[in-house]
């Protein structure tokens, strides 16, 4: 499985990778992008199995990134890992086609449940 992590903070990408390992998902290939525009190119080039994206990023926000991914015809499972988890953000994410939104602070168990649920829905 290939996991694409898109976040403008390199430190946050490392935290997400560490949390994936703690959730038992550390043996998968990980590709990293620094913003939504870069992430969009990586979705096309790398064909990931799942995308984990921040919401607030320069160049292209996470929600714009998700909308561009869906507009391109991709149905890759997509979830947000972000600092906010307001009901409005969750409904916007869901309406745009996200499978989940994980708000910080998060635990390995939350990651395992969200990613397992998103991937399980495909099978």
Structure in words:
The protein is an alpha/beta fold and 123 residues long. It has one domain (2-120): Response regulator (Rossmann fold, 3-Layer(aba) Sandwich), CATH 3.40.50.2300. It is built from 5 helices and 5 strands, in the order βαβαβαβαβα. The protein has helices at residues 10-22, 36-46, 62-71, 87-96, 108-120, and strands at 2-6, 29-33, 50-53, 78-82, 100-103. The chain has a 5-stranded parallel beta sheet with strand order 2-1-3-4-5, with helices on both faces. Helix 4 links the parallel strand 4 (78-82) and strand 5. Helix 2 packs parallel to helix 3 (62-71). The radius of gyration is 13 Å and the shape is globular.
List the helices and strands and how they pair.
Layout: E1 2-6, H1 10-22, E2 29-33, H2 36-46, E3 50-53, H3 62-71, E4 78-82, H4 87-96, E5 100-103, H5 108-120
Helix pairs in contact: 2-3
Which properties best describe this structure?
123 residues; alpha/beta; Rossmann fold; 5-stranded parallel beta sheet; 5 helices
Q: Note the main sheet.
A: 5 strands, parallel
- CATH topology-level name: Rossmann fold
**Which CATH class applies here?**
Alpha Beta
Averaged pLDDT, please?
Answer: 93
In short:
With 123 residues, this protein is an alpha/beta fold. The chain has one domain (2-120): Response regulator (Rossmann fold, 3-Layer(aba) Sandwich), CATH 3.40.50.2300.
């Amino acid at each position: 499985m290939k996991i694409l992590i898109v976040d403008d903070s390199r430190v946050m990408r490392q935290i997400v990778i560490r949390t994936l390992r703690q959730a038992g998902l550390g043996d998968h290939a990980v590709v990293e992008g620094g913003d939504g525009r870069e992430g969009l190119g990586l979705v096309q080039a790398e064909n990931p199995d799942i995308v984990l994206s921040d919401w607030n990023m320069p160049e292209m926000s996470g929600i714009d990134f998700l909308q561009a991914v869906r507009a391109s015809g991709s149905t890759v499972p997509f979830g947000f890992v972000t600092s906010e988890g307001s009901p409005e953000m969750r409904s916007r994410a869901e309406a745009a086609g996200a499978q989940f939104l994980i708000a910080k602070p998060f635990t390995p168990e939350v990651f395992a449940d969200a990613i397992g649920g998103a991937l399980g829905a495909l099978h």
